[in-house]
Write a structure and sequence with these properties.
- Helix 1 packs antiparallel against helix 2, helix 1 runs antiparallel to helix 3 and helix 1 runs parallel beside helix 4.
- The protein is built from twelve helices and eleven strands.
- It folds into two domains: 95 residues, Methane Monooxygenase Hydroxylase, Chain G, domain 1 (Up-down Bundle), CATH 1.20.58; 236 residues, Bira Bifunctional Protein, Domain 2 (BirA Bifunctional Protein, domain 2).
- Bound molecules: phenylalanine.
- The site of phenylalanine has 10 residues, from strand 10 and strand 11.
Length: 350
């Protein structure tokens, strides 16, 4: 009898350490539940040990019963504390999903504006040909912007309707051509300069903005012809558009060049065909050509204003619209894109 009591007490005693051992292996809530059933379940180890008590004497039962209750309490506490440990680990794992050592997504470092990209590219072409880059003020006076360029006082460009005036005599330059004047005043021939810059006109609709970008080119020497100009412009277009683009010179008029021409390039959208996939080309309006610049041989009258000898020197100049070229180069259909500064648009030029 007494042996049986001790055997049951020993069994009860071992349950706690065995349960602890099982829980050490139980890393999931499922494993925990298995251990609970094995030790505290209706057919578990504790229940089995208590069933043994039936054979005990009346005197032995209370002691074994007390022990059984203690063991039950100890097992319950073990299981509960293991459960909260598992829950805590789970929560920690969630927090660990945020790993502070992972390097952050690198921020967008910004990019060149497409107009700046094209402007720089064009200037680079001329730099390689030996041209110097020059610049000048956007706020100009009448003399540099108009008078020295042989633009008569009654010329429509001088009208308040077209020009943004600061005072009667001071204005926002309407083209980069005053840089021809400034260059010739400062340098003696031979000169070969390229002058990118912003220009301003009282103009605002779908295809015109009050500010836009031009690039002026000027070459003056003792001998040069319009065919030099043509060859250089063709070279520039091929470099910028990377295709065998065609150029067309149309007779035109500028007070500061004679003869003058406007230059069209074959439409890059439709390849000069005038149609895209059977539909009329929107970009060249079915003509197959797009105007990109004005040019001509420097009018001898201009040499008079800057002190060059018109019998000794000849030269040519051109003024090109940069937005126009950027639209063609990147296939941008709407001028407003350049000024809205939508990062989704600008990002594409990274
Ligand atoms: N300045 C002219 C314009 O803005 C372009 C041009 C430049 C024409 C140089 C001839 C020579 O339209």
């Amino acid at each position: 009898m007494a042996g049986e009591k001790h055997a049951i007490l020993a069994e009860l005693e071992s349950l706690v350490s065995e349960c602890r051992h099982s829980l050490d292996q139980a890393s999931s809530l499922e494993g925990l539940e298995e251990a609970r059933i094995a030790f505290l379940g209706r057919k578990g180890r504790l229940a089995a040990a208590m069933a043994e008590m039936v054979g005990l004497s009346k005197e032995d039962r209370p002691e074994v019963g007390r022990k059984a209750n203690d063991v039950k309490a100890a097992l319950t506490e073990l299981l509960e504390s293991h459960q909260s440990l598992l829950n805590r680990n789970k929560a920690d794992a969630k927090v660990r999903g945020f790993d502070p050592s992972v390097p952050p997504r690198s921020p967008w470092g910004g990019s060149m504006h497409p107009v700046s990209l094209v402007s720089q590219e064009i200037c680079d072409v001329f730099k390689k040909l030996g041209f110097d880059i020059v610049s000048g003020p956007e706020v100009e006076n009448d003399w540099h912007n108009f008078e020295a360029l042989n633009i008569p006082p009654d010329h429509p460009a001088r009208d308040m309707q077209d020009t943004l005036y600061v005072t009667d005599n001071i204005l926002l330059r309407t083209h980069t051509s005053p840089l021809q004047v400034r260059t010739m005043l400062e340098q003696q021939p031979p000169v070969a300069v390229i002058a990118p810059g912003k220009v301003y006109r009282r103009d605002s609709d779908l295809t015109h903005t009050p500010m836009f970008d031009q690039i002026e080119g000027l070459l003056v020497d003792t001998k040069t012809t319009m065919s030099d100009l043509r060859g250089i412009l063709r070279h520039m277009c091929r470099e910028v558009f990377n295709t065998d683009i065609k150029l067309r010179f149309r007779p035109s008029f500028f007070p500061f060049t004679e003869p003058s021409a406007e230059v069209d390039i074959s439409c890059v959208m439709c390849g000069g065909k005038g149609t895209v996939g059977g539909k009329p080309c929107r970009v060249c309006k079915q003509t197959g050509w797009i105007e990109i610049l004005g040019c001509g041989m420097v009018d001898p009258n201009v040499y008079g204003y800057v002190g060059y000898d018109p019998d000794k020197y000849v030269g040519w100049a051109f003024g090109l619209g940069v937005e126009r070229v950027a639209m063609l180069k990147y296939g941008i259909g709407d001028l407003r894109m350049f000024f809205e500064n939508d990062v989704r648009f600008l990002r594409q030029f990274s």
